[in-house]
Amino acid sequence: MTDSVILGIIPNYHFRFSIVDLTKTAKEIILLHELNSEMSVFLSKTLMGALFLAEMTKDQQRVSIQWKDDTNKSVLAYSNRYGVMKAVAYPGEFAVGDIRNEFILGQGIMKVIRWEMNADFYQSFTNLVEDTFEVNFLKYLTESDQVRAIVGMDVEPLKIDGNFRAKAIMFQALPEASEADFKYLNEKISPIINKESFWDLGFEEMRTELMITIESELVVLSTEEPEFLCDCSRYKVSEIIVSLGKKEAESILTDVGQIEITCEFCRKAYQYNQEDVAHLFKE
Fold first, then answer.
1. Mean pLDDT across the stretch 179-195?
2. Which phi and psi (to 5°) does residue 263 adopt?
3. Each residue of 136-177: pLDDT tens digit?
4. CB–CB of 210/7 below 8 Å?
């Protein structure tokens, strides 16, 4: 069974909505990285948040969400508006000397980057508060994007028997939406997303339940099938080695005999011997 995300509008209230079932994609990434229950929930919610933000962007953009809390747990997730995704999560600090220490954020920060092909990226931040991912996600939307939204997420941690679930909904107020529209939908939707029985429903059943609750049609504009797809390549890894500099690369070759870099998202390993490295710095 494939994952699904639908994007649509609520004409009566000047809102747009998204409903996502990311169970298969999130589970694949969780198993790949052997995450515990706590980190599997964090990663799944961050993935769904990245997808929601990506649906608000242009066709060629993709969005990344990166955060690190006060206990050094961190997640990095990417998505475009079609649900092509990758993610990684770490339950604690990296070892001293790990190159990833140069790129990870300071504690208590969520960073969002909007990447556009052949153009400069745009990044924004929010400080994390001690609450759920959903609360911090809404805090980001309000502070950085000036967007009013209603967000609900449900992740059932991966069990020994293989059962797992990752679903979410987002209702975003368009500029024409009145404060009365937002208040009405928030009062109607909030009780529903706090019920376990709602998340037990199938995808279309969730949409039907929401329409009954708000007494309005949810008009579907597009449907996509999210998937985990890493875009790493030997060319990109070669650029990392070149960025180290010839002296550092040759030092690693002397000490180890080869340079091996493993993609943190898909775990694919790339090896470079002395001849490979010499060729990189000759180009």
1. 96
2. -65, 125
3. 999 999 998 889 999 999 999 888 777 899 999 999 999 999
4. no
What whole-number distance in Å separates Cα of residue 209 and Cα of residue 207? 5
Residue 136: what are its φ and ψ, rounded to 5°? -70, -35
In the chain, which ranges are E strands?
A: 4-10, 15-21, 61-68, 74-80, 84-90, 109-116, 122-127, 149-156, 165-173, 219-224, 227-228, 259-262, 269-272
* Domains of the chain and CATH, by start: 4-228 (3.55.30.10), 234-282 (3.90.1280.10)
Q: Which two tokens stand for residue 70?
A: 């006060």
Residues 78, 159, 74: CA angle, nearest 5 degrees: 35
pLDDT at 283: 63
The helix, strand and coil proportions of the chain, stated in percent and rounded to the nearest 5, come to 40, 30, 30
Single out the residue of 112, 216, 225, 209 nearest to residue 152, CA to CA.
209
| Residue 121, C-beta contacts closer than 8 angstroms, at least 6 positions apart | 113, 114, 115
CB-based contact 184:171 (threshold 8 Å): no
Distance CA 158, CA 185 (A): 32
Residue 107 has pLDDT above 80, yes or no: no
Task: Tell me what the mean pLDDT of segment 44-71 comes to.
Answer: 90
Cα separation, 201 vs 214, in Å, equals: 17
- Which of these, 77, 86, 74, 87, lies nearest to 38 by C-alpha position? 74
pTM, two decimal places: 0.91
Distance of alpha carbon 183 from alpha carbon 252, whole angstroms: 60
Is residue 154 within 8 A of residue 199, CB to CB? The reply is yes
Single-letter amino acid code for the residue at 205: E
pLDDT reading at 103 higher than 50: no
Of 189, 155, 163, 141, the closest CA to residue 20 belongs to: 155
Counts of helices then strands in the chain (DSSP H, E): 9, 13
